[in-house]
Amino acid sequence: MESCSSNASTKVFFLVGFPALQDFQTPLFIVFLLFYLLIMVGNAIIITVVVVDHTLHKPMYFFLINLAVLDMLFTTTTIPKMLAMFLANAKTISFRGCFLQMYSFHGLTVTEALLLVVMAYDRYEAICNPLQYPAKMTRRVNIQLAASAWITALLIPVPVVTQTSRLAYGHTTTVHHCFCDHLAVVQAACSDFSANFQTFLGFSIAMTVSVVPLLLVTLSYIHIILSVLKINSKEGRMKAFSTCTSHLLVVGTYYSSIVVAYVSYRADIPVDVHVMSNVVFSILTPLLNPIIYTLRNKEVNTMFLYTFPSTLHCGGCNYFNSSI
């Protein structure tokens, strides 16, 4: 058995990828390249549409730009390395590169959870306090809310990633994953009490930063629903509810993929299922967000067709439209 050391010099990690799909590297490359291009193009279009149309310079769309930028960064932390693995069998990653990827992946995961909370708060103020909304959700407040989400989320993983990097690893450590996920790297470390503690600590923090934002989003929508139910007209209630549809779909997609990823951590789940569930989590939400906000949002849809008239002609899109 190879000796283990806490010395980081000259160490590398070997990413196994999908053990059961080693004979399908080229198809995997094509599929993930397509996903990556769709994510980058879709989110870039959302950013362009919102920036170009001054009528969309509102708090909700400011947060939508943040979400689009986040999704582009989030997928860029993992997919390019996966593409290199599938195309050129480049399965090794340096010690520092591995932990940078780990930090980026988990930090941006938390950022998305906190941005969804901020967007829920924006919908709460717009529906529950419509008269005070312009005064409360000023440009300065919007920037402060978004900055708080980014900074807080990017600070949370620092202690765990730092402590994990201090565990003992072999000169070449085999990681049963497509990227440097925290749990996969900890499981690859030399087995000792520290590794078990890091597993427990990492899972506890992951659960906390998932559950607490979900509770805040749920609390916001409880207040929103109670306010909407006080509206006398059915049309007014439907219009108020329609302003939250896109955000609720994104929240549902995000937390559904998290549940699948957490369930796959069970010891009796095959490695391929665990790896695939984490990969789906890292791709699904960034892939669906532009689709949801394009089809479900009347203002974005209209401006999208105006900005890119030759790239999309959707005769049935009006069926999906709803006003913000």
Automatic annotation (TrEMBL):
The lineage of its organism: Eukaryota, Metazoa, Chordata, Craniata, Vertebrata. GO terms for molecular function: G protein-coupled receptor activity; olfactory receptor activity. InterPro entries: GPCR_Rhodpsn (IPR000276), GPCR_Rhodpsn_7TM (IPR017452), Olfact_rcpt (IPR000725). Gene3D superfamilies: Rhodopsin 7-helix transmembrane proteins. The keyword Transmembrane applies. Keywords: Cell membrane, Membrane, Olfaction, Sensory transduction, Transducer, Transmembrane, Transmembrane helix. The keyword Transcription regulation does not apply. It is a multi-pass membrane protein. Coiled coil: none annotated. This is G-protein coupled receptors family 1 profile domain-containing protein. Residues 42-293 form the G-protein coupled receptors family 1 profile domain. The chain crosses the membrane at residues 28-52, 64-88, 100-121, 141-160, 201-229, 241-263, 275-295. It is found in: Cell membrane. GO terms for cellular component: plasma membrane. Its main location: membrane.
